[in-house]
Amino acid sequence: MIRHLVARGLSALALTALPVLAPTPAHGAAPPPAAAPSHHRRVFPEPPSADVARAELDRLKVETPHSMAGYSRAAFPHWARQYGECDTREVVLSRDGREVTQDSACRAVTGTWYSEYDDKTLDSASKVDIDHMVPLANGWRSGADTWDTAQRKRFANDLDNSQLIAVSAASNRSKGDQAPDQWAPPNIDYWCTYSRAWTHIKSLYGLSITATERTKLIEMLNTCD
Question: What is the pLDDT of residues 1-39, one digit of tens each?
């Protein structure tokens, strides 16, 4: 009897010592999409207030555009690697989207994005472009033609300031490399933020503006009031 009870006790101990194994995925099954690590998530950089932007605008140099001679998008290396497999584009897609999931290569596979430029909601990353608030070619015409490659790379991948934003591909391509006096967001409700962001980036990077660009930025900043 005692031997029988001991045997039962040893069996119970052996069962409790067995490790709990996670289910094994089916052979060849792809891992489920994952969200970007929380410690890498960013908040869209809010540009300064309208009053600060107006003060920055007053300090910007007004001049005619520089020559486009020698310009190439390749002179502004992008999109740079940010962490793991994620480059700048994928970081902005994750930052600006809602319920974004990414695959093992950091590509956005699900999510929705709101395009501030044209007041549209997009349900696929393929419909989203990452816009440079101050376009690369505009930057070149207003001073980036004198920069070294490292400075151009910082400008093209600036996640710390209001230079990059996820918008509809249609609005980004409509904008092209145009300044606010040539193109402004169809969504007038966004003019305040757009002009603050544009002015702040030009101020941060010491870029110039044209006289007509300045006039339009004043008009757009006045929508903040």
Answer: 434 433 444 344 333 333 333 333 343 444 444 444 443
Q: Which two tokens stand for residue 83?
A: 């962490």
- Can you give the three-state secondary structure of the chain, one letter per residue? CHHHHHHHHHHHHHHHHCCCCCCCCCCCCCCCCECCCHHHCCCCCCCCCHHHHHHHHHHCCECCCCCCCCCCHHHCCCCCEEECCEEHHHHHHHHHEEEEEECCCCCEEEEEEEECCCCEEECCHHHEEEEECCCHHHHHHCCHHHCCHHHHHHHHCCCCCCCEEEEEHHHHHHHCCCCCCCCCCCCHHHHHHHHHHHHHHHHHCCCCECHHHHHHHHHHHHHHC
Distances 118 to 13, 64, 81, 179, 196 between C-alpha atoms, Å: 66, 29, 29, 17, 18
Q: What is the pTM of this model?
A: 0.82
